[in-house]
């Protein structure tokens, strides 16, 4: 049984993340999406909200589970009885950091492999950061987010003023 963990901040989940989750679910027996709690950035959404948003947009995928975690990723992967970490690569700018993380994780946990999926070209430019910036200027979010998530981002952004 191949179990993969797809970790990230998902603040908020974008169509790019959803594409990676769907493709991973087709390749692996089980996928755990790990929502990082101790992000150094101040998130727009609480970890509980991010988990709920991910549950909403993955409810049609039977082999996908959403969990939150803090601490070392490799410890979380072991606690999920997983053996693969999945990360998305959008551009060469992602590569250096991702390679360093993959090597570090492999030294700490040689039983875990990191697998990189190249982004779907349609979403290669999409990031949670850009989405939040557009929302702060009341821009249209439907090209980047699931419609329900777009509504939640608009509302949150408005309430933050
Ligand atoms: P982090 O804060 O750890 O980068 P993110 O939630 O921003 O977390 O991203 C989680 C993972 O999803 C990372 O591997 C990132 O490269 C990947 N990712 C983010 N946006 C996209 C996208 N548009 N297409 C493909 N992969 C993406």
Q: What's the topology here?
A:
Elements: E1 3-8, H1 15-27, E2 30-36, H2 47-57, E3 64-69, H3 73-79, E4 84-89, H4 92-108, E5 113-118, H5 128-136, H6 147-159
Parallel strand pairs: 1-2, 1-4, 2-3, 4-5
The protein binds adenosine-5'-diphosphate.
Q: Structural class of the helix and strand makeup?
A: alpha/beta
Percent of residues in beta strands: 15-25%
Distance between the termini: 47 Å
If you average the pLDDT, what whole number results? 95
N-to-C order of helices and strands = EHEHEHEHEHH
Q: Choose one word for the global shape.
A: globular
Low-confidence stretches: none
3D architecture notes:
The chain is an alpha/beta fold. Helix content is 43%, strand content 19%. It is built from six helices and five strands; from the N terminus they run βαβαβαβαβαα. It has helices spanning 15-27, 47-57, 73-79, 92-108, 128-136, 147-159; strands at 3-8, 30-36, 64-69, 84-89, 113-118. The chain has a five-stranded parallel sheet with strand order 3-2-1-4-5, sandwiched between helices. Strand 1 (3-8), helix 1 and strand 2 (30-36) form a beta-alpha-beta unit. The longest helix is centred in the middle third of the chain and has 17 residues, at 92-108. The radius of gyration is 15 Å and the shape is globular. The model has no long low-confidence stretch (mean pLDDT 95). Adenosine-5'-diphosphate binds at residues 8-10, 14, 16-17, 20, 87-88, 90, 94, 119, 123, 126-128.
């Amino acid at each position: 049984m191949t179990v993969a963990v797809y970790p990230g901040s998902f603040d908020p989940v974008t169509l790019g993340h959803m594409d990676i989750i769907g493709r991973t679910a087709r390749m692996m027996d089980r996928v755990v999406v790990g929502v990082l709690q101790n992000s150094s950035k101040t998130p727009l959404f609480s970890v509980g909200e991010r988990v709920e948003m991910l549950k909403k947009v993955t409810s049609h995928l039977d082999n996908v589970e959403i969990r939150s975690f803090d601490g070392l990723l490799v410890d979380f992967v072991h606690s999920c009885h997983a053996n693969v970490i999945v990360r998305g690569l959008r551009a060469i700018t992602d590569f250096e950091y991702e390679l360093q993380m993959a090597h570090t994780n492999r030294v700490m946990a040689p039983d875990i492999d990191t697998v990189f999926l190249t982004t779907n070209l349609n979403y290669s430019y999409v990031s949670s950061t850009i989405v939040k910036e557009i929302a702060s200027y009341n821009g249209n979010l439907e090209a980047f987010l699931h419609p329900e998530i777009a509504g939640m981002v608009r509302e949150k952004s408005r309430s933050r003023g």
